[in-house]
Each structure stands twice: as C-alpha cells, then as structure tokens.
Amino acid sequence: MSTDAAHRIHPHGGPDLPETPPALALRRLVKRFDRTVAVDGLELDVPTGSFFGLVGPNGAGKTTTLSMTTGLIRPDAGTACVLGHDVWDDPITAKRLLGILPDNLTLFDRLTGAQLLEYIGRLHDLDRELARQRARELLDVLDLSDAADTLVVDYSAGMTKKIGLACALIHGPRILILDEPFESVDPVSAATIRSILRTFAAGGGTVVISSHVMTLVEQLCDHVAIIARGRVLASGPIDEVRHDDSLEDRFVRLVGGHRELGEELAWLRSSRP
Amino acid sequence: MATFLPAITLRSSARQGNEDHLTEPVDAASSWIQFVMLVVALKLQLLGNGFKVSNARLVAGLIGAAAGFGVTVTGVYLIAQLRTAQPSDTYLVLVIGGSLIVVGWLLLPVLIFGVDESIDPHKFALLPIPRNRLLVGMLAAGFAGLPAAATLVISVSTVIPWSRHALAALVAFLGAILLTMLCVVASRMITTALSEVLRSRRIRDLLSVSGLLVAGSLVLLQLGLPSMAQLATREFTEQLAGVLAWTPLAAAWAAPYDVVTGAPALGFARLAIVAATIAVLILLWGYALRRSLERGAAMPGNRIRSRPSHTTRMESSTNTLAPWWARRFLPSTVTGAVAARVLRLWWRDPRQRVSLLIIPIVLVALVAGPSIAGLHDDVLVLAAPGIGTLLGLMMLNHTAYDGTALWMHLAASLPGRTDRAGRALGTAVWAVPVVSIGAMFVCLLVDRPVLLPATVGSSVGTVFVGLAFASITSVVIAFPAAPAGANPFVSPSGGNVVVVLQQFLGGLVVGLLSLPIYLSLGFALWWQPDLGWLILAGAPAYGLVLLRLGNRIGGRYLDEHGPELLRRITPSRT
Predict the structure, then answer these.
(1) How many domains are there within chain B?
(2) pTM recorded for the entire structure
(3) Which site among B311, B317, B413, B570 would you substitute to test the A interface, given the most A Cβ atoms closer than 10 Å to its Cβ?
(4) What residues of chain A score a pLDDT lower than 50?
C-alpha cells in the first residue's frame, strides 16, 4: 500500500543508533515477482556481533530478503544497509564486508575445490599466494583436503555446502549471511560448521542464518526474527521472542495455519486388508 | 503455481489406480484405458504448462509447431504428387525418403539432447502401477506429440499414390500405422536404454561431446556429396532400396509396391517384419525400463569420492587456477583470475570442448579436403579468418554457461569491465595462437606464402571482433544455457527457436563488423599482396579497438543489470 512511496526513509542507520550502525539495516524492502509479493515492506535490524536466526515457513520471503541484502536481487523499493553502507548505492564497500552462502545457486563447479577457493579469493583481490594459502587452510579445517583435486560438480551435497561456506569465508568478511547452511550436511560436518561460526561470532563477527530447524536456531542464535508472507512478525533477542514457550510453539502460533486433526482424513485411520 | 499442476494430476491418477485395485477387480480393459488416457492427458498438460512458463517459450513453441505443420503439409503434398508417377519410381522415393525418416527417429535421442522425457518412468516408480500398464501408458504418451503426429500423417498419406489399387492402399495404411509405432517405440527404447548409460557425469560429458562432434563432422560429409551424387545412379539406388526394403527401416514403405506388382504375400511378409521388430523392441524396452526403475532415479551428478592423492608435482599443476603453460601469459590480477577460469573451462566444460574440437574439423573440412581433392584455390585462405568469426559466434551466449554461479561475481562486486576483459583474455590466450597457426597452415596448403602476414593478421583480427561482439551479446541478449552437468536427456525443451534467431542475428552483425577485415584480405589476395604487412598490424588493431569498446559497453551493462542478468540466465524450473 504505502510501500511504494517509502523509499529513502532512513538512508543511513537512522537517528536511534548514532554510534555504530547495525550490521544489517533493512528498511521497507519490497519485491514482487510477476503478481506475487514475495517481500512486503520488510523492516529488520541485525545488531553487530549477534548470531542472528531467520526463520519462516516456506515461501515466507527469507531467501528473497537475503538476496536483496546481498545484492543478488534488486528490491522494488526500500533500502538495505550493511554497517551503514547501502548495498545498492555503494555495492563495493558493502559487499566486501559480506560473506554469502546462498541456497539453490550453483558454484563454479567445473573447477576443483582448491581452484574454486583460489578463484574466489582472487576475485576479492587477494594476492595469488595468499589466496592459495587460505584455500589450503579452509580445505583442511572443513575436512575437504582429500577432495581438493576433485571437481566441485562431483562433490556430494554436504561437501558442496562446505566448499560454499569456505568461499564465503575466504576474504575474511565481517558479516556472514548463510541461507540454510546445515541442509544436507552430515552431523560431523555440521558440528565443524557450528564451531567455525561460533568462533567467527566470538571474534566480533555477525552471523545471519536462515533455517527451518527451530532447535538448531535456538541452540546457535542469540537473536531471531520470524518472517511470514514477506513481513517480520517478531524480532529481537531470542528469549524475548519466544517468551516462555519453545521457539517452535511461538513460531507456529505467530505464523498460524496449523490445525489439529479432527474428523478429517478418517479414511487414513481405517486400515484395509 | 502452474508447475505444480502435473503433480496434482499425478496424485489423482495414483489414487484412481489404487481404488481400481482395492475396491473390486473392475473391468480390466476399462481401467487400462483409463490409465492410458490419464498418462496422455498428463503429457498434454505438461506440454501446455511448458508454454505457460514464459512468453518466449510460447513463441518458440508456436514457431516449432508452425514449422512442423509446414513440413507435414509439404511432405503430404509431395507424396500426393507421386500419384501420377510410375509405381517403381514411387517405390524408390518412398523407400529412400521413408528410411531417412526412421533413421531420424533413431538418431534423434542420441544426437539432439532436447528429447522430451517429460513422462519420466521414474516419476511413476513409487506408484502401484503394473509395469506393463506403465509401458503402454508411456507408449501412448509418446504418440501424443507433434513428431509422432507428423510421422503418422505423412506415412498415412502414402495411401494416396497407391489408391488406384485397393489392396495396396490398405497395405499402405496398415504399414503407416505400424511404421509410426515403430518410430515411437524405437526412440522410447533408445532413450530409456541410454538414460541407463548416462548415469555417470563422465559418460554424459563424453556423450555430449561425441554426439555433437558427430553432428559437426556431418560437415565433412558435404565434401563427399558430389562423389555420392555420381554414385547415385538409378541402378545403385534400386539396389540400395532392395536391401532397405527388407529392413525395418523401409519394409513398411515398400510393402504396397509388392501388392501392386502382384506379390501380396511378399507385401504382408514385409509388414510382418515391421510388426516383429516392434514386438522385439517393446520387449527390449520393457527390459530396459525394468532395469532402470530397479536401479532408482538418476541422481544429479555421480558421486565420485576424491581420487587417490596426487604427487606433489601433479598437485601443483591441477591445484592452481591457471594451467601451467598459461601462467606466464596471465597476469596475477583479478582479470587474470577470471581469464584463468575461462581458459580452464574451454576444456573442462563439455559444451565448450565441443566448440573447441569443432574448429579443427571445420578447418579440415573447408581447406584440407578440397586441397587434397586437388583444389588449390587462393580463396581458401578466407577460411582462416572464418575460424575467428566462428569462435565469436560460439561465444554469443558465453556468460550463461556459468549459469547461476554468476552470483559469485556479483557477490564479490566484480567490476563489469574486469569480468568482460577476463573472459576475452581467457579465450584469446589460446585462440590467437591457434588461429595464427591455422592461418599459416592454410597459406602453406594453398601454396601462397606471400599471403601469410595478411592471413595471420586478419585471422587474429576476426578473433578480436568476435570476442568484442560476444562481450556485449553474452550479457545483453543472454538466455539460459543447458547446464553442463545435466542429464542431456532431461534438458528443458522449448526456447530453441529463439536461440536460433538470436544466433542468426548475432552472426549477421559479427559478419558485418568483420567485413572490413575480410575486404582488406580480399584486397591483398587479388590485388595487392604488399598490403599484407599493413593488415598484419591493422586488423588486430581494429579488433582491439572494437574489443575495448565491447568490454566497456558489456561491462557497463553488467554493472547496471547484474542481478537481472543473473535472473535471466537462471534456467526456469520445469
């Protein structure tokens, strides 16, 4: 409705946070695809140094929001700022601060793991030797050293996630934006990834992850936002958002749509010979 | 969304199947027919939904349908003209032409990867459907489509030339039905059998390369055409037809002629050959289908765990981004990194490897062939710059080969000009030496070493012009490319006509831009060989100026429309 006229509201940070701008400040983001509104005037602040979880049902606009924040999808209206730098006005500064792992987008998968990491490092203007050295370290930590000379296209889904995470890390970003980072990752690798992310956050970095798995978000994140139908339903420190409930119950109550099964599907219960 | 509709159809079909099973054994025939109708309806719905995805696809589909309609009408018209011909002539034409149609059906799944596998048997694997019924359903779905309809109409139209003889017309009609079945069954069987082979990425890569190479080397056949035309005497054609008429390729086409010449038994024997072939193919297909279903659906990409670790020497060569030989040419800048990746891909990406391998084939076909045949025409030196232009044409949609991985360039906020320059450099690193050597080879072959500087200069020039143009087109008119690692048999259908149009227009513009180079080479060739040295310097300089301009325009476009480009080259979900 009013979203069309709403661009340029808080160009930088806003008056309420005079000192350090938040890691991410999303203001009135709007995105339509054909006739469906994927993101509908979304507002979100991600405090610097937080471990931020983004949860929402399928089609809530999580991926679209993250894509608009990282410069992969241009918003129809609204602004997205990274530490005070607008991603769409000053992309070079803003994107240098970001490390991104999108879901559902391929990597340059005809390169070997080591080559891919060297490539991404050099795209970020790292020196050739430095890029190679960091690539070796990342492959080692993520337990991919054996697969360093294998084409990424031949990696399993979990390995692909890990090499994608390595690509997001190689230039030393200050903010990590990870879309479904734990999907199809085996428990051992998931533990490795978790400890990497915790280390990153402990060092002052900001981590934003989206996930369907509430327990994972509760376990990892200190802040959370619940998104549905392209809007933020609740956002803040995780204890404030969930009150005394579990996050999952709070989520289901906020999002709605869950129904207890009454007399429907009666045929499902009758067992046939 | 539109794409979900088929799933709903699928589910309802399953439930219906279930109820048939569970309530009571209803009339078996009617439940068979019901299932077949459902599968055919599903196929038609999938076709229809495919058009809903985008207007471009709708237009492409309409053009394709119009072309199919045109071919069918022309075919029927030509066959109808045979009415007034001698029966023996009709026989020859139908046997030879008809065999080509059947061969086309056999080769289609092998050569062109756009074969429609929308009714994938694996999608039925979890449903309680007896395999025989699935087989019949898939066969019926195979008939529901333009190619089968066109084949049926054309083959039934052979009733017209034989219409003066009632029995012959009847045999022609039966033959037409059998022939269409044969075509559909054979192509289905080949598709299913090959999808088995295509599980591993390596084999898929290999096949996509070899398939396209076969298609490319058909160019070579052109050379043989004159000699083949001499061979094709009436006598030879009759012998060939005599053999073909006993194979399933043409037996159905030949049968009516036997009836006309007073040997109806022979005609029915030929029909029996076709029928028996269909039966054997169905058995084989059923077998292949069973094997394929029992092994489970093909997974995207075969999981190969890492190969045994390499020695340190090997590691240093495969582990670095740039190949060892190119390391000294490529700067260690960001542009150099992009160039190194592009260079790697020319061999690693099967789509580009095909382009690479086609170059020597074309060179041999255009130059070496005629030379060996004794044609020492100076004009052949024009083939050398032709390679440069060809290369430019191959790269018209180069950016889309990255697919959605292009996001990594956007995420690193890579400047558009760096992206463009890196891509051009990565190709030029191998293309410039290769065309230079090719140009020298051509000059020596036609025995005009005087033309060497002009030919080398103009060839390098056309490479630059091609790269310059590709720099712009591959972002401005980009369209989704078939993914390199995808099972070629499940590639998205439609859109091909638009692609061909873009390629055609692109080729026209590249040709126009290269025209000054060709003209000056012609000038040197026929008039002033001394101009050669000027061309050696001038043509690459001209190309470089265009390349700079192209990189600037393409780069600016990329900077401004990066996210939109990413969306445009993302293959639509089907």
Answers:
(1) 2
(2) 0.70
(3) B413
(4) 1-18
